[in-house]
Amino acid sequence: MLDQVRVASGRRLRVEVSGDPRGRAVFLLHGTPGSLVGPRPQPVLLRQRGVRLISFDRPGYGGSDRRPGRRVADAVDDVAAVADALDVGRFAVAGRSGGGPHALACAALLPDRVTRAAALVGLAPRDAEGLDWFAGMAPFNVQEFRTAIADPERYAARIIPRSAVIRRDPARMLEDLRSDLTEEDRQIVSDSGTWSMLLRNYREALRSPYGWIDDAFALTSPWGFDPAHIGLPVLLWHGAKDRFSPASHFSWLAARIPRAKAVLEPKAAHFASLRALPGVLDWLLAGTPRG
Prior knowledge:
This protein has an eight-stranded mixed beta sheet, with helices on both faces. The chain is globular. The chain is α/β, with parallel strands linked by helices and 291 residues long. The longest helix has 17 residues. The chain contains eleven helices and eight strands. Helix 5 packs across helix 9. Helix 10 links the parallel strand 7 and strand 8.
């Protein structure tokens, strides 16, 4: 099975396809930091629903070559290249957390190929008019993003050794996040299967620190598209108690994307989105033909 795609520039993207090989195609774009082995529905669920799930490591993560200076909008080139290599014409796309903006980019810039898009616990653009971007965000995230904006070299110098530590001991990532997790999120990540999956995800993602670094720069720089120009159906899913991606970001996007279906769960936070994925898949498939 195809596990690597070369794009026009010669960069390599590591790809994984799971579920029903003849099913309807759905791209799942991972979080930050993350990799293609990150959160996803179980294979049996994918086969039952007739889903051909396509995942790949964003540039700089896992087994994919880096693309320095990439914007959020540049994810469109990679998604299109992978779809072409797999002979997929039309498809849905979903992104969770840091993958959410990249999924919205596909909805905005690939309208002839994307059928529906979903963004779960994602961020709004850093230059979003009328939005206090840092309001309600966990202090650790505020510090990291502010450093990425104000002093990119210093940010990279901090992330490089930190990512090496997490690669050796990925439980450190979850330990760093623990104080900002709600009780429900603590229960979700403490599940043995979820815990093991997240450890594999972080270990694989941080083979190199540059996917994480470049994601931070891309998310806090102009995205390269306007969410208000998305013309196809979009599902926005968010937890009202999320401190990593505050719900105000969700509200800003919901007010601007013309065909958005906005779902705000009042008691949920960030990692509750893992439980929402099967329902999100069902919504995506409702508007996605085969082929």
